[in-house]
Structure prediction request, 225 residues.
Amino acid sequence: AQSVTQPDIHITVSEGASLELRCNYSYGATPYLFWYVQSPGQGLQLLLKYFSGDTLVQGIKGFEAEFKRSQSSFNLRKPSVHWSDAAEYFCAVAPSGNTPLVFGKGTRLSVIA
Amino acid sequence: DTAVSQTPKYLVTQMGNDKSIKCEQNLGHDTMYWYKQDSKKFLKIMFSYNNKELIINETVPNRFSPKSPDKAHLNLHINSLELGDSAVYFCASSPTRDQPQHFGDGTRLSIL
Prediction:
């Protein structure tokens, strides 16, 4: 079955440390890939997207993600985490441009001093 | 200015009642969506409209009926509410079907 997997339910990092959130998908072709962030009580905000081209994409708030076709992965990274980055992070996939987004179950990020 | 706005933000009601959630976007987008986020934060598409026409209708009970009076609005009406309908409902919009989506802040529906 087609799916999006975020293996880590909850991650805790120290402020200033680097961060990597994992996302794997199971689709035949290269889908459209997204990372969204949800702060408590808020809607989802798009961090970055990958449609085609350069496999390393830059997003807002200092985030980047790398698409690796061989691993069917689209991991999100940030070199230095800030306390305000504490939130829920969702990886999402659209098998093609005209299909609905399928979300992973999310990874909750906690940031400690 | 709020890009995608939903009302109400909170909705508490009893089982069996009928309620509506409104959504408006001022981005000029053609496509609008409704998602349901359950208590475990899992997000699932419910409906999608493109230029007022229904294009996606996932497996959702027919107690849920979306209505799009124009392409800037997509309302969600729910009949005979059940306990399992308790969730956060998100409206979203995108310029076209293959562009990233902008989300509203959600409506938290609690069924007593």
